[in-house]
Amino acid sequence: MEILIRNGVVYDPLNGIEGEVMDIAIKDGKIVPTEKVDPKEAYVIDARGMLVVPGGIDLHTHVAGPKVNLGRVMRPEDHRVSILRYIPGRRHSGSGKTTPSTTVIGYRYIRMGYTMIIEPASPPIKSRHTHEELDDIPYVDKAMLPLFDSNWFILKFIREDARDKVATYIAWLLRTVKGYAVKLVDPGAGEAWGWGRGIGISLDDEIPGWGVKPRDIIEYTLDACIRLGIPHKVHIHCNRLGFPGNYETTLETIRLTEKFPILDRPIMHITHIQFNAYGGETWGNLRSASEELAREINRNPRVSIDLGQVIFGTQTTMTADAPYEYVLYHLTKWKWSSTDAECECAAGIVPYKYRKKSYVNTIQWCIGLEIALLVRDPWRVVISTDHPNGGPFTRYPWIVAWLMSKRARDEVMKKLNERGLRKCILPSIDREYTWTEFVIITRAAPAKLLGLEKTKGHLGVGADADVAIYDIDPREVDPSRDYEKLIKALRRAKYVIKGGEVVVKDGEVTRVIYGSTYYINPVVSPDLEKSVKAEIEQWFKRWYSVSLSTYEVRIEELRSVKEVKVISRV
Ligand SMILES: [Zn+2]
């Protein structure tokens, strides 16, 4: 199919285009030079007075896998309030607000103009389940990040100080379960919790039974990812998440990167940083530590972040940080679920309500925005709510508005807890994001952080034809003043083109298509891999409930796979 998008107001930061009126041509799923498309043959979209940008990329959203599914089961009330009807040929049915079913996830993302999503926490042993759910999410491309934080092989090889083995195991596991990058959640805490400890452990607390510290897990896996040449290196949920005073641990984690070189892109991605940016000693004297963290991030180009922005209302928290969910359950005393995934990791789920009048929740709401506004380099900032932990991804248009409009922030702050606001600096921040910065943090930056900037996150020739067109004219609308118009436009794209096909028209999906699943295949020395695999086999027989051949997710099992091969130095 050939498509010609005419006279749109194009923002494409990876190609240095800022609000230029131009045509975009599409053929065979790719962006091509305009002369390659015949206007008489092509499907022509008149985008005059409309914003044309690359498809959005969500770098961190819990959408598939065992804990997501259990979250759905635990929240029947969440599925009664939001039901999507079946429309033959156009969309499947589904339900759920904070824990939507798979089809609803794809439907809501594509309608907002998002074309790729990353599931950021899957227990390796449950990868088949995660992939099956990802396969069931229509419209978007996807990838998943397996958890390595309390993995017995990682702990064993670190104890042996066997750096090559850590790297080889990571390469083997990513290829075997079809993962995209290394995810660490509260490193070591899941394992320590199995020994009755693990609540709020810091970088230098020893993990019982192993003689290994969280600091070692981060340092060894980071070293391995760099040597493997994995583009998106360690994606980390820092230790002591959710505890007052935890920003010091976050600072220490950031400083851990200093022994590594500055590369072409950040080497550590700190996810949902809001939950790790707390000053004070108790919930009673909690304060925002966004300034301390932003200062450090501004200084250190090795680190990128996503926000974990809080949205007021009842949400469902779910994380591989099982000990923290235990703590949260004792604060909420509502529902709690906890699980352990054999020799690999753990998880917990707790529904939670963020209240505008709450001192703590007010500070949390401010912190996410403060960090986004205080970090100067938008190429290292990505929007997230840590869906569904801070709130549903469907609230992204509001977050964009809060970043682009001080007035929009002030409106919300009028209704918040006054004592909480005094512990924040958000009221005094004047910065407003530009259109270009909005496109960077929702498209170009995540593409670059994933190492996919050749084909994703831009509209240059050769890019995948993933395009969002919004009914808003950046030359006429001042988002600072007219933020309501901005929210309205971003909630439902006028058109969305995915892989060269028009899938949204006038804010409604027109047909069901499926994207691809990306995974990384780091190529390591065959001899090394053979010897490490022999060790893996031994331990599998001894400790795992499944066999090694069952563990592997084969390419034929997935709907559509895109392999990203990297040649490593291991
Ligand atoms: Zn998360």
Question: How are the elements arranged and paired?
Answer:
Elements: E1 2-12, E2 17-27, E3 30-32, E4 43-46, E5 51-54, E6 56-58, H1 66-74, H2 76-80, E7 83-84, E8 94-95, H3 102-111, E9 114-122, H4 127-136, E10 141-146, H5 152-159, H6 163-177, E11 183-185, H7 189-194, H8 214-228, E12 234-237, H9 247-255, E13 268-270, E14 278-279, E15 287-288, H10 290-299, E16 303-306, E17 313-319, H11 322-332, E18 337-341, E19 345-354, H12 359-374, E20 381-382, H13 396-404, H14 406-413, H15 418-421, H16 435-449, E21 467-470, H17 483-491, E22 495-498, E23 501-505, E24 508-509, E25 517-523, H18 526-543, H19 548-551, E26 561-567
Parallel strand pairs: 1-4, 1-5, 6-9, 9-10, 10-25, 11-12, 12-13, 13-16, 16-20, 25-26
Antiparallel strand pairs: 1-2, 2-3, 5-21, 7-8, 14-15, 17-19, 18-19, 21-22, 22-23, 23-24
Helix pairs in contact: 5-6, 6-8, 6-18, 9-10, 10-12, 13-14, 13-17
Largest sheet: 9 strands, mixed
- Please report the number of helical segments: 19
Calculate the mean pLDDT score and round it.
96
Radius of gyration: 23 Å
The proportion of strand residues reads 15-25%
What's the count of strands? 26
Low-confidence stretches: none
Ligand kinds:
zinc ion
Percentage of helical residues?
25-40%
| Oligomer category | single chain
Query: How widely separated are the two ends?
Result: 43 Å
The best one-word shape is globular
Structural class: alpha/beta
